[in-house]
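Please check this one:

***
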Amino acid sequence: MTSTPTLAASETDRPGITPGTARRVAIASFVGTSLESYDFYLYAYFAAFFVGPLFFTPLGAFGGVLAGFLAIAAGFVIRPVGAVVFGHLGDRIGRRPVLLMTILLMGVSTGLVGVLPSYAAAGWFGGVALVLLRLVQGLSLGGEWGGSILLATEYANPKRRGFYAALPQLGSPVGSILSAVVFIVLTLTMSQADIAAWGWRIPFLTAFPLLLVSLYLRWSIDETPVFRKLIETGRRDRFPVLDVFTKAPTAFVIAIGAAVLGIGSYSLMNTYMVDYGTAVLGFKFQDLLVATTIGGLLQLITIPLFGLWAAKIGSARVVAIGAIGTLLVAFPMYFLLQSASFGVLVGSMIIGGILPTLSWAGLGGLMSDLFPSPIRYSALSVAYSVAALLTSFVPALTLIFGQAVGNAWWHPGIVLAIMSIITLLAAWAASRRVPILDETES
């Protein structure tokens, strides 16, 4: 593995940027990714338990769950389109205005899910509208993650890029915790009939006030110094998305592979496990939410620690370590879950969450190191979106695979192991490359 290169003076000194400014920008970035994750996990829990009966009634139990999982995939199918559009804009007009657009689209589309009519009230209208709103969310997601990473890292000292790139990743466990808590509160305070009748709308409607907070935070910050420098030097690419494929095709493939485990493990451990855990293993829905929340709370500690580790040993190494660890526990974890013990469930959510979190925490730094700043927004957005698209089918494919093998205990382990191997190979390839620093600052 290559060592971290020596940084030039102009790359370590950031005139006019105080540590406080960098932290404030990182907070704004983190809040945005938290809203993104909150919106995603709201629908993930919703899809596993409520979508079928509410919107796809004629399809039956299995067909309804499958339709709900495929609606998740629909949001990711269009995500690369959003990545191309917003990635281009992010490299042309700036990181800040694009992030204002993406967070607005995400908040509004999520909130509108809360007012959709069920199949009993309006037939297929609600199901069709749900898919359309998932498509709008997908467009937003296409430009959200890459911009959030750049907002945090392009204000940071390059020596601490790995750490600041990890901070937006906190949004995932925060979103998971908030969405799980909302559903836990619903199950404790409302009957199943009331939740199915109208209570399910409450979590989605909370997206509106959260949107106002996110808009305020992002409106209050300035454009990143890296992009301002690009404007001053006239080095903005006319077609940055195309240049990703001509200037950095190998790096693009590496970035996709590196993202597979970090994204896909959440789909497997949260979305699929909600249905598999209740329908096959016999866990209570509330127990699964509690276990997920406990795992998410620990990630609030581990992600910053892993970010510090990434700043010290390199983001690619941290991603690789996470992939190796996940590969080692994949099969033992799912074997032990067959006991249907709540303690084993919590332990599995902790171990099965923390190890992939290593790969998740180091992902932003690894991907930022692969690309030059004039095409970085496009590169990160498109690569992440392609990985998200590929892994969006994990719940549906695992469900079908499980049905084909009679829900054999090892079937989710196969899926997790494959994702771990892909990310391990990509992280190894990334570790062999010299990190690309902000060219416009040298």
User: Anything to note?
Assistant: Confidence is low (pLDDT under 50) at residues 1-13. Residues 398 and 412 are 7 Å apart (CA to CA). The chain has 21 helices and no strands.
